[in-house]
Amino acid sequence: MGQSQTKQVKQPTQEVKQTTQEVKQTTQKDGKLRFAVAGESGAGKSAFINAIRGLKDDDDGAARVDVLETTMEPTEYQHPENPMISFVDLPGYGTPNNPDLPTYWKNAGLDDYDIFLIITPTRFRQNDFDLAKKIHSTGKSFFVIRTKIDFIKWEIRKRSFNEEKTWMKIREDCMENVKGLISSENEIFLISNYDPHKWDFPRLHGAIINALPGHQRECLSRRKTWSLR
Question: pTM, whole model, 2 decimals?
Answer without folding.
Answer: 0.79
